[in-house]
Amino acid sequence: MTNTDFFIPRLAIVGVGLIGGSLALALRQAGAVGEVIGIGRGLANLEKALELGIVDEITQDVVAGTREADVVFLATPVCKLGEVAAAIIPSLKDGAVVTDGGSVKASVIAEIEPLLRPEVSFVPGHPIAGTEQSGAEAAFASLYRNRRCILTPTARTSGEALELVQRMWQTSGSEVVVMEAEKHDRILAAISHLPHMVAYSLVNAVGSYDRYEENILEYSAGGFRDFTRIASSDPSMWRDIALTNPEALIEMMERFECFFAELKEDVRSGKGERLYEFFQRSKELRDNIL
Ligand SMILES: NC(=O)c1ccc[n+]([C@@H]2O[C@H](COP(=O)([O-])OP(=O)(O)OC[C@H]3O[C@@H](n4cnc5c(N)ncnc54)[C@H](O)[C@@H]3O)[C@@H](O)[C@H]2O)c1
Ligand SMILES: O=C(O)C(=O)C[C@]1(C(=O)O)C=C[C@@H](O)C=C1
């Protein structure tokens, strides 16, 4: 049943995992989509998506699956987005809108924009929502509810296409924010990419500690587990993100190193007052997010 005046007759999702699958489910739940075609490489995952009612049709042929689509959502790992766009853009129908959900924007735009032709629009996007799980089975309809979705249009993005993609994310429950790709990449390096690097490092540092002949991770309780949930995220996704946003990420890693080095010095020299102030400032910033 349709409960919105926004409607996409034919939506193609390339990469029916957590992000692509959840968009399909959210739009279906809102009655905002007609047919959904799921395109991917792994047949087992596509069959699961069909069985779960995420998509109506599946194919491993990316050109055939996208040819008649009104909107194509690219939800593959970041390093595959350009390759997929190059394969499909020549055969998309006139007026088709391509958008993506990649976690990094400037490198994706640099790859995809030169491939465009006047009849096909591209709206770069990134839903700021996710979990540490992947694949179609991890998808759920409410993933984007009350989350932000950042769109990073360029001078070549048509206003009409931008509005359509904006409405698509709003229909999925998100608040849409528009900004430049470079600003997006710097903000995400700080708020998302750095925390993943820290979590992966922490688990490796603690997990390889071998002073005792036992696995000390088994002693982990709330603190360690809450902090490191994201270290269970897909390693190939995070390899791609690190490779495609290195400048902004290194800037944030260096900033983190400075804070950590100061903290270490204050611990070493027993500066209780400085430690208290550091923890207090951090607590206030963290408490204010909620
Ligand atoms: N997981 C998150 O928290 C999150 C949040 C926001 C954005 N993103 C971005 O969304 C994208 C997808 O992430 P995800 O978490 O849904 O991953 P996922 O692994 O759950 O899904 C990706 C899917 O793409 C398929 N795929 C890989 N290469 C392909 C190709 N060449 N052609 C077609 N299909 C291909 C995979 O088989 C998989 O089913 C990534 O670009 C990621 O950076 C992820
Ligand atoms: O909640 C998580 O598990 C996430 O990692 C989601 C998260 C994030 O860092 O917040 C991860 C990558 C994205 O591109 C967007 C969101």
Automatic annotation (TrEMBL):
GO MF annotations in UniProt: NAD+ binding; prephenate dehydrogenase (NAD+) activity; prephenate dehydrogenase (NADP+) activity
Residue ranges annotated for the Prephenate/arogenate dehydrogenase domain, each copy included: 9-290
Keywords, sorted A to Z: Amino-acid biosynthesis, Aromatic amino acid biosynthesis, Membrane, NAD, Oxidoreductase, Transmembrane, Transmembrane helix, Tyrosine biosynthesis
The enzyme's E.C. designation: 1.3.1.12
GO BP term, example: tyrosine biosynthetic process
Catalytic activity: prephenate + NAD(+) = 3-(4-hydroxyphenyl)pyruvate + CO2 + NADH
Pathways involved: Amino-acid biosynthesis; L-tyrosine biosynthesis; (4-hydroxyphenyl)pyruvate from prephenate (NAD(+) route): step 1/1
One Pfam entry name: PDH_N
Membrane-spanning residues: 6-27
PROSITE patterns in alphabetical order: PDH_ADH
Protein family: Belongs to the prephenate/arogenate dehydrogenase family.
Protein name in UniProt: prephenate dehydrogenase
Organism this protein belongs to: Geoalkalibacter ferrihydriticus DSM 17813
